[in-house]
Write a structure and sequence with these properties.
34% of the residues lie in helices and 22% in strands. It has 124 residues and is of the alpha/beta class.
């Protein structure tokens, strides 16, 4: 994927509705990272925490953009922005990885799946 220009969706998840500072911090962090890495941000989506990922509108739209081939990269401020449930995180990462979609954070760069290639496959 290094030869192909990355087209990304930024996914921002807030801990509470009234936290504009956290929103701005995540957004600025992702914008700086995308610029530094030469990643074209197609869309920015956000959700407020408190529900499972499958019921968050921004998460659902982000996942659909990935599965429809609109983007080849997901930018998140941290893996916990996908979900605090590690099983959900691993399932999402496995699904994206199996489709060639990079999930990246400013701190980790490309999020790697430790079990990839060991026969464990999942679907969202």
């Amino acid at each position: 994927m290094d030869d192909i220009k990355k087209k990304a969706v930024c996914y921002i998840k807030l801990g509470s509705q009234n936290n504009e500072i956290a929103l701005k911090v995540q957004e600025e962090k992702l914008e700086r990272f995308a610029k530094m890495e030469g990643i074209h941000v197609v869309r920015k989506l956000q959700d407020v925490s408190g529900s499972i990922s499958a019921s968050r509108p921004g998460f659902i739209e982000m996942k659909e953009m990935c599965l429809n081939g609109e983007v080849n990269c997901v930018l998140v401020a941290g893996v916990d922005r996908i979900s605090r449930d590690m099983e959900e995180v691993f399932t999402f990462l496995d699904c994206m990885d199996s489709r060639g979609i990079d999930v990246m954070t400013p701190d980790m760069r490309r999020v790697e799946i430790p079990w990839r290639g060991r026969g464990i496959e999942s679907e969202i």
